Amino acid sequence: MSVLKRQSLPQSTAVAPQLDVREPVEEEKTPYYSPARFYLARLGEVLNGRYQLATKLGHGSNSTVWLARDLNQWRWFKEKYVAVKINANLKPDNIMVKIEDPSVPEEAARDEFENPLPQKVYPDGRTIYLTRNNYGPPRRVTGLVYIVDFDQSVRGDKLNSGCIQAEVYRPPEVILDAGYSYSADIWSLGVMLWDILEDKKLFGDIYSVATDEYDEVGHLAHITALLGPPPKELLDRGKRTHLFYELGGICKGQAPTTFDFNNMAVHIRGEDKEMFTRFIKRMLKWEPEEWSTAKELLQDPWLYAEFEED
């Protein structure tokens, strides 16, 4: 029966541009990067005899995400693509959205096969691929949403250390390595809600324009501009505080001159804007102990208010 199923494609003959091995890219830029924490994936590789890697979609602090052809399909059926997350370690805050247009992955896979993105190949054969994730504006209504990867969750009844979460959603205690617990996801929720409803990332300017590299100092500078100076107690707990702050708690990064909730909220107006801003502020504070819990947030009046549409 296997001959009636989809067969893996041969390796592409297109030559990908080569990147300088001395310059870090993609997952190599994560704060605690180590090659041992990432699976050595290769384009064209077939995982578990079923999923053939077609192009890279993204990366995390311990994982990479790939568009893959599902070979468990009858040949006369349309190609089926899935997103495969490969990790040597992941995290409890992953959200997956079913793609809105089936033609998008097929186009991406074909483009990678014919015009591969630049790659960085080390002498030992290890390859770092660039991410193909710019697909333009949505073509249709977004599909189903799933929360996944609970298997790598950590206990929240004690402080944990290390790097977690996507860069723009990391709270101060994670960046500073001051110990995190359940509350780290509350900060992420607040930033994510802002990004979704305002259709613009709250901390979208924390990447270098020249290199597109995540700037941790700039991130903390933006948080400082939004919340004011950080408390000394938090800085004292941080194992990485010295990387971002001078003695006396002065941030080494350049803070934007105008950066506050009221100025940045443009899609929500009037009373809705005021209530939404108060709701977000309950999640975005310097000290995790000051954030509202998930149970408390569920009682917030903004969630139950009805507003007239503009």
Describe what this molecule looks like in 3D.
The protein is globular and about 65 Å long. The chain folds into 2 domains: 1-153, no CATH class; 157-310, Transferase(Phosphotransferase) domain 1 (Transferase(Phosphotransferase), domain 1), CATH 1.10.510. Helices cover 22% and strands 13% of the residues. The relative contact order is 0.10. Strand 6 (119-121) and strand 7 (127-129) form a beta hairpin. The protein has 310 residues and is of the alpha+beta class. The chain contains 8 helices and 8 strands; from the N terminus they run E-E-E-E-E-H-E-E-E-H-H-H-H-H-H-H. The mean pLDDT is 84. The strands form 3 sheets. A 4-stranded antiparallel sheet has the order 1-2-3-4. Strands 5-8 form a two-stranded antiparallel ribbon. It has a two-stranded antiparallel sheet with strand order 6-7. It has helices at 103-114, 172-175, 184-198, 216-227, 232-237, 261-264, 270-281, 294-297, and strands at 46-47, 51-59, 63-70, 81-87, 94-97, 119-121, 127-129, 145-148. The termini are far apart. This is non-specific serine/threonine protein kinase. Keywords: ATP-binding, Kinase, Nucleotide-binding, Serine/threonine-protein kinase, Transferase.
